[in-house]
Every structure is written in structure tokens, then in C-alpha cells.
Amino acid sequence: MVKKHFNIKAVAYFLFYLVFSITFLWILSLTFRINYIQYPVAILASIIVLASLFFLISKSDMNKLKTNYGLKKEILFISLFFIGTLAVTMYIGLESQVGFLWDFGTVQRNAFEIAKTGNYLDISYFARYPNNNMMLLISVAAYKLIFMFAPSASIFSMYKVIIAGNSLLISISILFIYLSSRRVWNRKVAVMSVGITYLFTPILLYSEIFYTDTLGLFFVSLVMYLNVETRKSSNKRNNIVLLIIMGMAIGIGYRLKAFVIILAMAIIIELLLSNINWRKKIQKSLVLLVSVGITLVVTTIIFNQFIPTTKESKDENEFPLTHWVMMGLNVQNDGRYSQDDFELSLTAKSYEEKKELQIATIKKRIDSFDSLGLLKFLFVNKMTRTWADGTMMTDYYGSRESIKQGYLLQFYDKEGQYNYGFHVYFQIGIFIIWCFVLIGSLLYKKRNTTIDFMNISIFGLIIFQLIWECNARYIYCFIPLFILSATNGTVVFNSIIRKLESKKIKPI
């Protein structure tokens, strides 16, 4: 009699996908609830679209590649598609250009002034929010480059060039979605992934805002693609090089969006649960972590060299991480940004005093909830704010002090003629995506295991957003991961239909 060994990997993935499935079932119910309350037409439309997609997917065989074009034609197709994407994204950005408000505006106005005169408009801002240091330096470099060709141009004229660069980042990110999906599955599925991206997400709609969201999108999509390549490559040297580049990308991404570090955690978890021997697991994990660590050290040195914030200024102005946890517990804003919390943090004179004040406020807010109140706040209020908004707040940010009163403002502005339809459309989109993410999770045994990294990362982001200040905009840069996870759901569904048909069983 053969003795069965305890399979920790199988148990770990069973538990993970059980929790992941419950989580997305809950997110789907929250999305349904918000649609029922605010956009009831989206419910019927979602059912019709979902049924149509199920029908189309059931009639297609995604496991068999049937294309009559070679590599040259594919390159031509990708090139034309890329140029088209870039053109559309640039048009959207230029048509919906906004004023330089909130953090985005502060960074851009300072970057322009530094590039022009070498002076800061407000150095205390970067002492308070060092998380925007990387964004500042990248923006300064961009403006300095433009100044070389147009030394007398205004910030508004220059920003049009910045929008073009921002559109390029978004287009490259979509290209990485295509390449990743093609590597995991095939060309046909890759085209479908891009179709899902275009039809169901607002990925093109932040091109007017050159900020950490679009740069974060680029680095997340890059890491996703590199991780897929490491999974598919058997060359040891190539894998080490790819891990080093991934570590650098995660390190820079972390400087833009702190939660990008979740990707490193997901990669290590996936490595530890892989079938390779422990020596290789440790070796690869160390290569990644050292690469991330060196990137963080180097960027810290660069910040200290080029951003003249003093120790005294940092102690007086910098907000501890507890500030964002405190805002994440503000019931008046459902855990979003709070001006009152901002002003509260300003009342404390030093870093340590701010931290003590914020920790005391966090404890007070937690104590103010009853036994179920905190759970309701976190899993209903905050999760609805973050995960049930298909627009990812693109209309809100795209209509704040619009410079050009163009056609797109009718979609973005709350009082615009097409704003309700805009919301209905993307509520349908997010519902469809979450449905296929859930299908792939429920049928996880049929999954392509390359997708584990994406799903672990998504789950990490869900946990992060429960703890941190929440905002639907913050999940924008994880769109590539959502798309590959949803694509996995369509492929898994298709494979089950194919199996049923091969057994001559009619699906219900």
C-alpha cells in the first residue's frame, strides 16, 4: 500500500483559493448592491453581456491556436495596434486636460519651477510626503528635456508633451498585458485579454494626469511580464537577470506606490510554494530581495542628493505611516482622504508627536465601533468605495478644474449629459471582470499556475486597502493583474465546456 504524503502546496493553494473565492464573491455582491441602489440598468445589462460572453466563449476553442499569420504579420498587427492605442490615449488626455490641483498638481508645478529656475515652490511638501520624491525627480527630468527644445514654453504648453509621454506609458502597459497573456496562453487569448482591457476598464482615462497611478501601472505591468518570463524560461542565467530587473522595477515602483511591494511578497510566496528545490527557492528569493534593497538604497541616496529637505524640516513636516491608517478609519469619509485628519496631523509639532497623536486617534476610532461595526465599516463601506467603482474615479479626477471644456467633460462631469451612462458602462465592465476572476478562482484546479502570482498580489492589495486610506483610484495600477486573472477565468470556463462537449454532455 502506497503511503500518501501531506502536500503542503496543495493545502496552501486550496485554502488561498477558498478565501480568494469568498472575497470576490463578496466584492461581486457589493458591486451588485451599488448597481441596484445607483445604477439599476447596469444589473440587466450585466446579465445580458455576461450571457453573451458565456455563449461566445463556449463556441470558441482557446486551447487550439488557429491563426493564419506568422511572426512578421503579428509584429505588424501589434505595431498598428500600439500606434492606434497611443493616438486614442493622447486624444483623451489632451481633450480632458485638468488644472494642477491636489498632490498631482503640487508635484508638477514644483517640477516645472525646479527645471526652469532650480527653485522649489514648496520644499516642505516633499518633507511631509517623501513618497512623492520619485515622482518629482522623474517630472523634473521630463521638463528639463522639454526645456532643451522649448526654453520659453509655459507649463501648460509643456504639459501637453507630458501627456504624450504619459499616454506612451499606458500604451506600453497594455502591450505588456498582450505579451504576458500570449506567453501564458496564445495569440488568440492575448487578443481577448486586450479586448477585455479596452472594453471593460478605464485604463486609457488617466492619461491627462501624469502621476504615480500611470507610472505605477507601467511598473506593475512590467513586473507581471517579467515574472511570466521567469516562469516560462528554463535558462538559469536569464532567470537571475530577470529577477534582478524585477527587483529594480519593484523598488522604483515602491517609491511611486508603496503597495507595489506586494508584488515582491507575492513572487516570494509563489517561489516558496513552487516545485523547485529549497536551494533554488532561497537563491531566487535572495536575488529578488537584494535587488529591491539595493534599488531602495540607491534611490534614497539620490533623494538626499537632489531634494534638499533637512532633518529638522522632516521632523517638523513628515507624516508617519500611521496618518494613512488613521484616515482609513475615518467613518465620515468611508476611509478615504480626510481634510480634517490632515489638519489634525498638522497640529502636532514633531514626527513623534504626530505618530503618538495618530495612534491615539486610531485606538479611539477602533474603540468607538461596536462588535460588528468595525467589520461592517471595513468590509462594506471601505470595500464598496474601493472595489465597486468601475470608473476607478476617472471621472472625478478628470473633471476637477477642467482646462478644456471639451466633449469628454460631458462624460466626466457629475452634471454632464453622459455621466450616468459613463458610470453604468464601467459598472458593467467591473462586474464582468470580477465574475471571471471568481470563476477562475472557484475552478482553480484547472488554472494555469502562472496566474497564482497575479491572484496573490490582488489579494495583498485587498488587505492593504482595508488597512490604509482607500480610494478606487489606487487599484488602477493593478489593472494588468485583474485582466490576466479574468482571462484565466474565461480560459478555464472554455476548457470545461470543451471537456463536456468531448464527452457528448450538453452543458446546462
Report what the structure shows.
- This protein has helices spanning 8-38, 40-58, 71-95, 102-117, 123-128, 133-149, 155-184, 187-200, 212-232, 236-256, 261-272, 278-306, 311-317, 322-327, 339-346, 351-368, 373-387, 394-398, 409-412, 419-442, 452-467, 479-502.
- The chain is globular, with a radius of gyration of 24 Å.
- By secondary structure, it is an all-alpha fold.
- It contains 22 helices and no strands.
Main beta sheet strand tally, sense and closure: none
Total helical elements: 22
Beta-strand portion reads under 5%
Low-confidence stretches: none
Structural class by SSE content: mainly alpha
User: SSE order in H/E notation?
Assistant: HHHHHHHHHHHHHHHHHHHHHH
Strand segment tally: 0
Radius of gyration: 24 Å
Ends distance: 40 Å
Mean pLDDT, as a whole number? 92
Shape: globular
Instruction: Tell me roughly what share of residues is in helical segments.
Output: over 70%
Features:
508 residues, single chain, 22 helices, 72% helix, mainly alpha
What is shown here, in short?
The protein has 508 residues and is mainly alpha-helical. It has helices at residues 8-38, 40-58, 71-95, 102-117, 123-128, 133-149, 155-184, 187-200, 212-232, 236-256, 261-272, 278-306, 311-317, 322-327, 339-346, 351-368, 373-387, 394-398, 409-412, 419-442, 452-467, 479-502.
Topology of this protein?
Layout: H1 8-38, H2 40-58, H3 71-95, H4 102-117, H5 123-128, H6 133-149, H7 155-184, H8 187-200, H9 212-232, H10 236-256, H11 261-272, H12 278-306, H13 311-317, H14 322-327, H15 339-346, H16 351-368, H17 373-387, H18 394-398, H19 409-412, H20 419-442, H21 452-467, H22 479-502
Helix pairs in contact: 1-2, 1-17, 1-20, 2-20, 3-7, 4-6, 6-7, 7-8, 7-9, 7-22, 8-22, 9-10, 10-12, 11-12, 11-21, 17-21, 20-22, 21-22
